[in-house]
Amino acid sequence: MSVDGDDGKIIEGPDSPSSVGWVSAKKMCLYGDTANPLVLEAGGSIGPVEVEYETYGELSQDKDNVIVICHALTGDAHAAGWDREPFGPLREYRKKKPGWWNSMIGPGKPIDTNRFYALCVNVLGSCYGSSGPSSINPETGRPYGLSFPIVTVGDWAKIQFAVLDRLGIGKVLAVIGGSMGGQIALELALSEPERVGSLAILSAGPRLTTQGLAFNAVGRNAIISDSNFSGGDYYGKDRPIKGLAVARMMAQITYLSEESMGVKFGRRLRGKDAPDYSLTGIEFEMESYLNYQAASFVERYDPNSYLYMTRAMDYYDAALIWGGGDLIEAMRRIKARTLVVSFSSDWLFPPELLRELVSALCRARHPLSYVNIPSRYGHDAFLVETDAVGRLIRSFLKDPKVG
Amino acid sequence: MSVDGDDGKIIEGPDSPSSVGWVSAKKMCLYGDTANPLVLEAGGSIGPVEVEYETYGELSQDKDNVIVICHALTGDAHAAGWDREPFGPLREYRKKKPGWWNSMIGPGKPIDTNRFYALCVNVLGSCYGSSGPSSINPETGRPYGLSFPIVTVGDWAKIQFAVLDRLGIGKVLAVIGGSMGGQIALELALSEPERVGSLAILSAGPRLTTQGLAFNAVGRNAIISDSNFSGGDYYGKDRPIKGLAVARMMAQITYLSEESMGVKFGRRLRGKDAPDYSLTGIEFEMESYLNYQAASFVERYDPNSYLYMTRAMDYYDAALIWGGGDLIEAMRRIKARTLVVSFSSDWLFPPELLRELVSALCRARHPLSYVNIPSRYGHDAFLVETDAVGRLIRSFLKDPKVG
Questions:
Q1: C-alpha span between A318 and A334 (Å, rounded)
Q2: Which band of pLDDT confidence, cut at 50, 70 and 90, is reported for residue A37?
Q3: pTM score > 0.90 for this model?
Q4: How confident is the model at residue A218 (pLDDT cuts 50, 70, 90)?
């Protein structure tokens, strides 16, 4: 498998003066031996699967400079730089913008591609290159739809290690992720502790809150309730984008905070001084923003994937999986030096929940750094507070050691 | 108009040992002179309108013992006792349960019907007896649907005073309400200050937060996105109950708190020890609760009414309406002695927002009592914390004076 994504010309993107430049996504076929498919945590099996990933920087001769970046719920492998050849039906938008963590990854940036070889793998079940419900089932020649097996955070960790195996990489310097990506990073450090030198978790806990479960349930319900849903078999027909839009609008609220929305939108009307008095039209800036976010999201995301991703988050419970319900017991497995970062206004993964993780790590006598960054940007702060996050990650990666 | 609702036999309802007993809802026709219809704040007009209300206790000879109770978003005039004759297409459920604030209103209860004459008016636009989008438009012989005019909190206050006028009641001892009802109570005290002796506002602020606007927008979007919505003209056909269910599930989350949901449901699975691994089925207790709440709600509520109610809440901004944007200036209008009650875990009308109201009242040199009740029950606390709320209201009403 060629690793040619990093050979591209370095350009100065308009929004990204220190971009890693053009990158090409790579695909890897895994579990291609049909006698030995991937057996999933939930009981299903599948094979072969395609896995999309991107890499930034050069792999050292000893393959000892690897940092694994884990993406969030609706993210993809395109973490940095500019996509040279976006592919797939929903991915036209990727031509237009740099990777989702472009501020963190690149030459001289906190995850410095002059030193490190960063790698980001798109999770199974997504619609961004790795196999998922919108992929063609080779047995039927049609998209899997809901016949795609249920995937879990544990499966995602397993697949990321499989990719590393294939690339001949044993131990990694660090795994880093925010939100759902933080849970994948945690799971990487829990499932193969010897292979993970450092672990950085941002805006993520060892499980969803009850409120998080509830919001996910509403989002899925909105999609399933859409008359175009057709049991998930809507490919080639009208997609259930109205339901997906509602799910996204709601989720968007949980990514922000009252303070950030108050400052950005308040109660301001959209382009007028007095309301039109309309039930179904746009009156407030806040509504306009949500509509815009939803409209852009449904263009680029598969409703079925939203079901798979949110369910995987629902099921993840590190204490239950690795400690029989005891989070301290689970944390005893971890060998990686650890950084945990929460944000004061994050209410999807609130600081109290991250402090539970921190407390369990402490009580498991595990060395760690914990920072609660004061921020008004809510859950999205891990993407927005680039200065504060950049300083922490830069310092955390100053002297990493493999395994 | 006869006031016969209070003559019913006193019974001991199973869930309500100190019930006011059977009550009969009353209806009043207002603005029956078609030359002088009700002119609404948003510019529309309508007439005649029907207004449903209930009363509890006996009106004193001097008509000086009146307390106005204001209901919340999906509430109705049935605040106490047991409905003798529920009517209307969606109101079968009302046979089965006592009024929504039955713990507060009755003989010997905090709003003591041995002393007071309590009155609760269903707001215009609702589906619980007062005219609304599901009512028959006399001009067409068909339900109004979205041709029903936009109503505001100001209109509701105006109509409540019209009902009082018709009953020959001038000044009232007190107006009391929680959530949207608290906003109506505030508006009653702002719009006719001389007529309101005391004002009690629970779990409500002078406006919605930006987050509140956002949640309302998502709820309406869910309804409008339902393929059965048909521009609001769905009467006699399949109603957009899937959209309404999604709206209610989401709203339900905002009425609770992470703590109360965590204690009540946590991450417990529904009737099983291990998950079924199902995307669309019920796995968690939390999901089961939301589904149950939504299923029961769509049986008893009209989707169009949900649009009207939430929009009215969106538009309400006491500072803008009465103070040109200055809340202190607005509060200078109020003559009523005032009680403001917030709940520590309420994040729909958070204590900080209520303290803004309190601060404005103080700076307007207005005497008031403010209590922030420590509670884990979130926004619903005003309905759930019956002991604490009851003590406050009882004490507040100990020595009320008319006007």
A1: 12
A2: very high
A3: yes
A4: very high
B379 is catalytic: yes
The domain made up of A212-310 has a fold known as Rna Polymerase Sigma Factor; Chain: A (1.10.1740)
A15 is catalytic: no
Contact present, B277 and A150 (Cβ < 8 Å): yes
| A328 at B interface, C-beta within 8 A | no
Residues of chain A with CATH 3.40.50.1820: 22-208+317-396
Q: What integer pLDDT is reported at residue A7 of this predicted model?
A: 28
> How many inter-chain contacts (A to B, CB under 8 Å) are there?
146
Superfamily holding A22-208+317-396: Alpha/Beta hydrolase fold, catalytic domain (3.40.50.1820)
- Average pLDDT of the residues in B290-294: 98
Task: Round to whole Å and give the CA distance between A45 and A169.
Answer: 25
Residues of chain B neighbouring A262 (CB-CB closer than 8 A): 209-210
- Residue range(s) in chain B whose domain bears CATH number 3.40.50.1820: 22-209+316-396
Q: Do B307 and A262 touch (CB under 8 A)?
A: no
CB–CB of B222 and A246 under 8 A? yes
- The active-site residue, picked from A24, A134, A135, A179, is A179
Spell out the SS3 assignment of chain B: CCCCCCCCCCCCECCECCCCCEECCEEEEECCCCCCCEECCCCCEECCEEEEEEEECCCCCCCCCEEEEECCCCCCCCCCCEECCCCCCCCHHHHCCCCCCCCCEECCCCEECCCCEEEEECCCCCCCCCCCCCCEECCCCEECHHHCCCCCHHHHHHHHHHHHHHCCCCCEEEEEEECHHHHHHHHHHHHCHHHEEEEEEECCCCECCHHHHHHHHHHHHHHHHCCCCHHHCCCCCCCCHHHHHHHHHHHHHHHCCHHHHHHHCCCCECCCCCCCCCCCCCCEHHHHHHHHHHHHHHHHCCHHHHHHHHHHHHHCEHHHHHHCCCHHHHHCCCCCEEEEEEECCCCCCCHHHHHHHHHHHHHCCCCEEEEEECCCCHHHHHHHCHHHHHHHHHHHCCCCCCC
Which residue of the set B191, B346, B366, B375 is catalytic? B346
Asked if pLDDT for residue B13 goes beyond 50, the answer is no
Confidence of residue A92 (pLDDT cuts 50, 70, 90): low
**Cross-chain residue pair B249–A225, CB shorter than 8 Å:** no
**Average pLDDT, stretch A273-292?**
97
Average pLDDT over residues A133-138: 95
Measure A50 CA to nearest chain B CA, in Å. Answer: 22
Residues of chain A with pLDDT > 70, as a percent, come to 92
Give residue A125's Cα distance to chain centre: 12
Looking at residue B126, its pLDDT comes to 97
Q: Which of B210, B226, B347 sits opposite A286 (nearest CB)?
A: B210
User: In B, residues 102-131, which contact A (CB 8 Å cutoff)?
Assistant: none
Q: Domain B22-209+316-396 maps to which CATH number in 3.40.50.1820, 3.40.50.150, 3.60.21.70, 3.30.465.10?
A: 3.40.50.1820
Interface test with B, best of A210, A230, A349 (most B CBs within 10 A): A210
In this prediction, residue B6 carries a pLDDT of 30
Write the residue in A213, A225, A275 that is nearest to B242 by C-beta: A225
pLDDT in tens, B346-372: 999 999 999 999 999 999 999 899 999
Segments of chain B assigned to CATH 1.10.1740.110: 212-310
- pLDDT score at B96: 63
